From TrEMBL:
Keywords: Ion channel, Ion transport, Membrane, Potassium, Potassium channel, Potassium transport, Transmembrane, Transmembrane helix, Transport. It comes from Brevundimonas alba. This is Voltage-gated potassium channel. It comes from the Bacteria. It is found in: Membrane. Residues 160-232 form the Potassium channel domain. GO terms for cellular component: membrane. GO terms for molecular function: voltage-gated potassium channel activity.
């Protein structure tokens, strides 16, 4: 009669360590399998962001909308839990601002009936994704300069701001102001105000409406200037100086501008 092998008291701990090791392999590894996993996560993220964009229209679908909403909440909750468990110190992970933004997005998904008016904050997921190390370790490693990354981050900030403001205007002024009867009206107002075009056919009422318009104009100009700066400023490459640690240099730099250390920046074609 065979005896069952006794279960070690450390078995659950060992299983937990193996699970953490697997998650670290997929979320932080550099192997082709790990990169493919992260690419799949990024594709799912973009699909979820597309759902967030269409949410004001899809909300009319009723029960179907809430079913999809909770499915997305489950996916995001599992992703956040996996990232936290894969991190060396989850307390340090919680200190990152992008994590709190993602938790806020998750809250609007878990309580859609109560927090639907804050659904416009879900579009912040685009900003957190395109500003995350997770994204650039997976996609950005194809470029050895910082130009593409900086342009993408600046464009992400501008697009996110446009749709967050559009969602706020739609949720706040829809059916309360004659000019805002649909999502397209809110988007039209946001773009017209942000670009300071000022057609004047749609204006927000009251002092709060004027204050919001001022904030949109000032922030929009700032974001446009930042995008223009990243488009036209001189090209830089990322190459840490071995002496002072300066990260960005001219592509043909021979010496570090900060400390004078001799640099050996590889050619783009090498």
């Amino acid at each position: 009669m065979s005896r069952s092998r006794p279960v070690s008291a450390n078995a659950p701990k060992a299983e937990g360590m193996r699970l953490r090791a697997r998650l670290r392999y997929f979320y932080h590894g550099s192997s082709p399998m790990a990169v493919r996993f992260r690419l799949a996560v990024i594709v799912i993220d973009f699909a979820i962001i597309g759902f967030f964009l269409a949410a004001p229209i899809l909300h009319e679908a009723g029960l179907v909308f809430y079913v999809v909403d909770y499915l997305i909440a489950a996916v995001l909750a599992a992703d956040l839990a996996a990232r936290a468990y894969a991190h060396t110190d989850w307390k340090d992970w919680l200190k990152k601002p992008v994590v709190w933004v993602d938790l806020l997005v998750l809250a609007t998904l878990l309580f859609p009936a109560w927090l639907f008016n804050f659904g416009f904050l879900r579009l912040l997921r685009l900003w957190t994704l395109l500003n995350s190390d997770f994204f650039w370790r997976t996609v950005g490693h194809k470029w050895d300069d910082t130009r593409v990354e900086e342009i993408t981050r600046a464009l992400a900030a501008l697009v996110t701001f446009i749709f967050v403001v559009t969602g706020f205007v739609y949720a706040t002024f829809r059916n309360r102001h004659d000019g805002i009867s649909g999502y397209l009206d809110a988007l039209y107002f946001t773009v017209a105000t942000l670009t300071t075009t000022g057609f004047g056919d749609i204006t927000l009422p009251g002092n709060w409406g004027r204050l919001l318009s001022i904030v949109v104009m000032l922030t929009g100009i700032t974001l446009f200037l930042r995008l223009a700066q990243t488009l036209f400023k001189p090209h830089k490459v990322r190459f840490p100086c071995p002496t002072c640690g300066l990260q960005k240099h001219d592509p043909d730099a021979v010496h570090c501008k900060a400390c004078g250390e001799t640099l050996c920046i590889p050619d783009e074609g090498s």
